[in-house]
Every structure is written in structure tokens, then in C-alpha cells.
């Protein structure tokens, strides 16, 4: 996702090179604001698509390891074979839900965290469902055990931040702790139809 984050800074760098004094003004020029308005939705959507696809691949790999299969860890599985047709609508729905949650004074965002965090797991294990059916299933599972799921995500998210104590390098090892509960929530709450 680094190239998409760099896209945000490219207009600032170009403006700084073209006119160094422009960065010392209190208000940005109108052209800069226009460029940022055009770039930000692309960057946000790209980040959502990449995030959902990588997390779904991570959960798929967790399932393979859980079954004891020796297979290649393919983190780019959902970028291939036409899987992006489901990832893109899921990213749009997730973004829409997040915006609606934010518009509800942030309280809605706390509620929406649970179903949105379950979306990659449903993508990984229910590829036969349509994106809207996946979201409905996420809400059904999320509403059933909302407080437990929210608590697990919150606590494991805080524990995952312990990598900061190791000069931020530890985050590479602890960051995924926050994502593991979703796999077990799906495994115990929904289960797998094709037990190998």
C-alpha cells in the first residue's frame, strides 16, 4: 500500500518544488485542494481493497495451517483468478458502512467495527456468497455476539501494540495478534462446511 500513500505526498512535493514559498502559507492553494479531493478517494479505496484481500488470504492461510496442510502461503490469492470482483464491492460496502458510522457522531463507528472486521473471514471461507450476502452474514454473526467480539478485538488490538516496546520492530511480530480472534470467531461461530 506504500505507493498509494506516496500518491498523497506527490502533489505536495510538486508544489514545493514549483514554488517553495507556497508551503509557508496558512491556507493551501485551490489547485492543491482539488488535486487532493481527486486523489484521496482513489487512495482510500485502494487501501480498503488491498486490506480486505490480504486479510482474507491471511485467514485462508490460517485455515490451511489449522488443518495441517503444507501449502504455499499465497497472500495474493484474492488478487488473482477473478476474486477482485468480490473484493471491490466488499471494499465499497465497508467504506460506506464506515462513513455512515462516522456520520453518526462516531458512535455508529463503534457498532460497525465488529461486522466490518468479520468481512475478510466471510470472503475467505464463503466465496459462493454474493458481497451483500456476506455483509448480511457479518451483521448477523456480529449482532449475535457483539460485546464479546468487540472486547476480543479491542483487547487483542491493545496487546498487538506491545511491539512498540521493541523499538517498533516488534510490531512486525505482534501486529497480527489483533486479527487472529476473527478467525476463531468465524471458526466457532459459523464453522466450516467442508471439514477435511
Account of the protein in words:
By secondary structure, the chain is mainly alpha-helical. The protein has a domain at 2-17 and 27-144. It has eight helices and no strands. The chain has helices at residues 2-18, 30-67, 84-103, 107-125, 131-144, 146-160, 171-174, 180-189. α1 runs antiparallel to α2 (30-67) and α3 crosses α5 (131-144).
Overview in brief:
The protein is 70% helix and 0% strand.
Q: Roughly what is the average pLDDT, rounded to an integer?
A: 87
Tell me the structural class. mainly alpha
Percentage beta strand: under 5%
N-to-C order of helices and strands: HHHHHHHH
Sheet with most strands: none
In the predicted model, the low-confidence regions spanning at least 5 consecutive residues are none
Task: Give the distance, in angstroms, between the N- and C-terminal Cα atoms.
Answer: 34 Å
How many individual helices?
Answer: 8
Alpha-carbon Rg, integer: 20 Å
Helix content: 55-70%
Shape: globular
The count of strands amounts to 0
